[in-house]
Amino acid sequence: MINGGSDKPKSREVKPSSRLKGRQMFKARAASRRLLGWILVGVVMGANSSAFAFEPAVEGRGSPVAREKLPAWHDGLLDIHHINTGRGNAAFFVLPDGTSILFDAGDIEDDFEEKYAPLKLGPAVPDSSLRPGQWIADYIRQFAPKRMTAIDYAFVSHFHTDHYGTLLPGSPVSAHGPWKLTGIMDVAEVWPIKILIDRGNPDYSFPRPLREQQDENLLNYLRFIDAGVRSGRLKTQGFAVGHDDQVLLRHDRKRYPTFSIRNIAANGEIWTGIGMEKRATLNADEIVNQNGKFNENPLSLVLKINYGDFDYVTGGDITGVSEPDQPAWFNMESKIAPVVGEVDVMTMNHHGNRDATNADWLRNLKPQVLVEQTWTSDQPGGEVVARVTSKHLWQGQRHIFATHIQDATKVAIGPWLTRNYQSMEGHVLIRVQPGGGVFDVYILDDHSRERPIKSHFGPFVSRPE
Questions:
Q1: Is the pLDDT score of 6 beyond 90?
Q2: Region Disordered: start and end of each range (predicted)?
Q3: Is the pTM here over 0.70, yes or no?
Q4: Residues contacting residue 278 through CB under 8 Å, at least 6 positions apart
Q5: Are residues 447 and 436 in contact, defined by beta-carbon separation less than 8 angstroms?
Q6: What per-residue confidence (pLDDT) applies to 324?
Q7: For the sheet containing 100-105, what is the strand order?
Q8: What are the boundaries of each domain within the chain?
Q9: 29, 165, 172, 399: least CB-packed within 10 angstroms?
């Protein structure tokens, strides 16, 4: 838990002819959007060979907006909301036809600062009057399509509580069953979840039987799963590595033939890039120590979204840096990166901690935009800032946005951080225009219950295959 350049080579799968036809149908529309985008964006590519590139100050990068309300989602838009509660990860996606996805909804223990001193938590935002999961549910209420009554798909990237919720002394019992409310369970109390996908379903046995662990947080989550399935309120599935047919547009799939979601990796299994084939890279014996303990992070889900030319990847806490006291298998990013290919937007793995977002990952993905979902004072690691700003790893412009950077972190890392991040506070929304050719970044005020726009960056032009 704690610690562009040239045309991009996409994933190696040969696309079905129907998808190719769909892409061709959108080329003419996307071309005009790209032309408009280039006119508005301008030519901003400048090479800088320094590992720590001092870029222009934030004020020159985005357009401050006088606390305007975000225009509502409409058909054809892809909205990717990275929600800041100050207490763990949460993201909410509205797909082009209105299909909805929740990707993680975490919470943190009250005694975190005591356990991990001198680390400090960020502020609970917008305030501590509600639990983080309740604030996530309220955020969804504000930005969901008007016709939405439930969340179509929810993912738990891995079983750390900052991604699904921790039990606190005052956690209430659900009105629907014998589990207590925190994190994703708080969200589900307000927004019923139709299908919940995680790395453990159906038997929760990798790398060892999870139901036998003395972890009340995980057992509470499993009570939520079990009771939801028994009552018919919830369907659950295991994350099907390699598949692009597990998460589908549920309302108007034929209208958006260039949209897809590919399951890239989980539990050490990785898509090969061919069809729905996968390969195993980890076995239980090597990752469980003599005390029966193991690290959840390398087992995280990695998910890739494609919409026309636009590509986005998120990977929970997947790891990529093997320290001297860690085995080679801990580096999952280097195995996964080649099959991901170049992307337009990525989240920084493991909150920007120093054991992730490695050089191989960045060389392969070459993102235009990076989003860091943070909640404690050691995020990001200084080494990670060096990597994400290095023009030695990939040439081209990059724009970096964090949900919250603490003042102590800014002082510790210095101008290499503050001069290269375009925003260091707020909800981060990626809004992709119909067809996927152009996208924008909006920073929403996380201290306000109304969540007005603080600043706007873009438009950015999605890079073609």
A1: no
A2: 1-21
A3: yes
A4: 241, 242, 269, 270, 271, 272
A5: no
A6: 81
A7: 63-64, 453-461, 438-444, 427-432, 78-82, 90-94, 100-105, 151-155, 193-198, 235-238
A8: 17-461
A9: 172
